[in-house]
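Quick one: structure tokens for this chain, please?
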Amino acid sequence: MKRLGKLATAATVALVLGVTVPARAQWIVFDPNNYVQNVLTAARELQQINNQITSLQNEAQMLINQAKNLANLPYSSLQQLQSSIRRTQQLLGQAQRIAYDVQQIDRAFSTSYAPATGVQSSEVLITNARSRWQNTYAATQDALRLQAGIVGNLDTNRIQTSALVTSSQGASGALQATQAGNQILALSAQQLADLTAVVTAQGRAQSLEAAQRASAQDQGREQLRRFLTPGQGYQSSNVQMFH
């Protein structure tokens, strides 16, 4: 009863002073387990974000590498190679008299290089001898001109080789390296074509010289026969000058 009286007195004082007493006191409670769980969740989310960033970086680098692999070689020797090939072709096309033509060769060896016969006049023998000499002379000149042209290509080839090797070493991707290698192969093919042209021209000159000697020997036998034949010896001196 005494305690109830004190509470009643306190309530009365509160009402008099206008103080409101809360029905229930409110307390902030800290839960360590929940806190740790929240921290772990945030860390996992942060790790996922980092993984996504790394993945995007890898994809970007992959695209950059693909772009490099698809990039064309900035240097091209095609124009210079084509120019060298054209010069060699022009020199071959300027071959004089008996050129690189099967029909021309067949006609020449059926006429001026044909075996001398007794029915041919001295004028025909002289004409054939002159024609053979002119063919040999022209073929020798053609071979020398072609050799000079090929020598002129050497300096261009040296410059192109140096530039292509430098481009190959500095290639940023697979395509550039492949293109540089292909151009080096093209340069090698052009040099091989020049070498083939020189050998062909030299062989032509040597073949015509050999054919001239063979025809001269055959014609010499015909001259000897005519010289030994009564009434025909006077013809030999006119033909001998072209042997």
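Confidence is low (pLDDT under 50) at residues 10-19, 234-241.
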